Amino acid sequence: MASKSLLWFLPLLFLLSSAISSSMEINSEAGGDRDYVTRESFPMDGDVAWVVQVSDLHLSAFHPERAEDLVSRLAPALRVIRPSLLLITGDITDAKNKRRTSTRQDETEWIQYRNTMDAIVRLSGIDRRTIFDIRGNHDKYGVPYVGHKLDFFPTYSVSSQLNRTGTIQSISLLGRERKYIFMGIDDTISTGIRGPSNLFGHPTNKRMDALESELQYWDNYPGSLVAKVVFGHFPMSFTASSEEGKRYENIFANHYVSAYICGHLHAKFGKQLWRLHTVELTSNAKEPNIVKQFWEWEVGDWKDSRLIRILAIDAGEVSFIDFEFLDKHKLLEDFETTILITYPTDSRNMNRIKTDSLPFRNDINALVFSAQPIINVTAKVFDSFRDFKMVEEIPLEVATNSGAQKPLFHAKWNAENYRSVSATRYWLQVFVIDSQGKEIASQPRPFSVEGKPGHYQNTWLAHLIFEVQWDNLYLILLWSNVAFLIIFLFLPKLLNYFMERNASYQKWVMSVSVSSHTQQRKSYFWVLWFLTEGSRSGMLWFAMIIYVLYLLKLPWFWGHATSEDGDIAGMYLSGWRIQVPNSSMMIDNLGIPDIFTITLPFMYLVVTPMIILIYSLFAKRSAVYLCSRGNIRCSNGPLLMESEQGSQDVSGVPTNSSEDINHPSVYKTCGGWTRWVILLACLVIILIHFKLCCALMLAYGGGPIALSPALMWAPPLFLAAAFYSTRTIVNQ
């Protein structure tokens, strides 16, 4: 008996050690050779500069209208806006087939991008050198390594054509006293795994060190006031930690980055994905910790929403407005007049805690972008504590240091009049009249002359997508599921072992049934019955243990991970294992936590319900077996046990009790329909499993997936074996 017990205690020890060792594996990223900084600088007049950001173009051979709209809508807009920089923050091409079931690089899409940018430069008059583009995850789908024949970014991107080959681009707008720094980061995964397991940004230690060094350089720049904005493709919520666990948030806060702007999530999750990061930085033991903040603003996609962002820096204060192109905005003269108030900033989503105390600014600044000459610009201040009554009207004039090419309007006011304990008491709105007599108004916005941040509340969906750190959440969801399976498989088996060792199992069942009240039995008896009887499945239980161990340490499936005709790679719970091109070396742990799009659905929707349903089938068989024995009757009522005192309900209630005879929970335990409900649930699980496998076959190749037994064949075989093993008792 002792040797038999050791047989199934050994898998428990191995299971725990496997879980611990798997969780300690580090995501190894190769390819840090490009982690250096390329610098460029441009002159800036005055203290106000603005840039345009566009993201997630997803240019596609199957949707040419996306590129056509860039030329017909964005180019005329740029001619009116005349930005200092044009920032394209990733997902330049779609890299998907027509049915959107598989990912691969298509050179025609990159040629389309190059031709589109040539047309935009020609029609908008923008300087090509002021265009900066970076990769997104779609631009790295199916690119085994940088420089591979399928890596089209170095050939067709604007940045690569201008010899910007590093993963960090440092752009400085240099004024007389102020410097505005924009830093672009390429955090795409080094080995371009195909979707759906290529979703996160993957910074390296070397890249973070290079970025921090560049930020430190500008911190120490002599004799200048510097404002910094970082742009990238991936939000912080979808950016993994580096090999040593470093994160960008601490770096940005420590070096006074004003804002991080990004794309990736598209407008389908919301057009106001904004987040104020608050970071507490440790100092020496004698001083309290320092709290610093920076904003993160995601811009909606061009693909479906046709959104762009105009972002301005005014004497160090960062503000922005998002502009959505409608169908009518196709020609230069149809460009809708757009107003961006650069100061004071919106207290809800632009202000942050500042460590320095500066005097109040007694000015109002607004940028007015219009295809028509502007006749009049007026600012109005409203008091929300007095039912939004207008308290001041201020005319704005063209700024004295603003030439014809700078649509900056300016006015002086007494900021002391608007001191308030509330960051949202006073609201500002700017009204513009153009040469055709048309009046345009900006969106009203609260402001705080003291720079106090107001309260901004995201929706629950925006909070889940944009504020939850998904690499940490993935580990929590994964290992909580593994822990549940460990307890679910082993705890009932332990109970079985100790009770059978003392020959007390049948006594326990009958004693609990006879002595327990109905409500007590409902609360724990049937749960214990289900767990105990479900685990008494013999070899099938042991096979499930082996299967869970397999999923923890061995490959789930094989497939073409990096290209449609590339080498076969294996996907493990710890990530992809891919062979280095032209070498016998292997790269491990790629695509963590990106593979959560595969592992979590499979574990939560297939493996876990599969094991629960197998337990259900065996528990149902045991119940029917107990009912079918000679001293148990259950045909017309609850379980009855023949005793020396006559027929007695196992619940302890006399058989003539109409309340117990009609009790549905006891009667249904022996009802045949429960097995059909379980079988229907099994069919649902098989259908879900089939859809997951089909999606992976389309993504990584049908042949390799079909020959992967752990993923493809194990779940239906387990359910079929459980159905076969429990069929005979039911037919008696």
TrEMBL record:
Query: Superkingdom of this entry's organism?
Result: Eukaryota
Question: Sorted alphabetically, which Pfam families does this protein's record hold?
Answer: Ig_TMM62, Metallophos, TMEM62_C
Q: Which residues cross the membrane?
A: 473-491, 539-558, 595-618, 676-699, 705-724
Domain TMEM62 C-terminal, chain residue ranges per copy = 476-709
| GO molecular function terms attached to this record | hydrolase activity
Q: Where is the signal peptide?
A: 1-21
- UniProt keyword annotations, A-Z: Membrane, Signal, Transmembrane, Transmembrane helix
- InterPro entries from the xrefs? Calcineurin-like_PHP (IPR004843), Ig_TMM62 (IPR056229), Metallo-depent_PP-like (IPR029052), TMEM62_C (IPR056230)
In what residue span(s) does the Calcineurin-like phosphoesterase domain sit?
51-267
Give the TMEM62 Ig-like domain ranges. 334-452
Q: What is this protein called?
A: Metallophosphoesterase At3g03305
Q: Which organism is it from?
A: Phoenix dactylifera (Date palm)
Lineage, please? Eukaryota, Viridiplantae, Streptophyta, Embryophyta, Tracheophyta
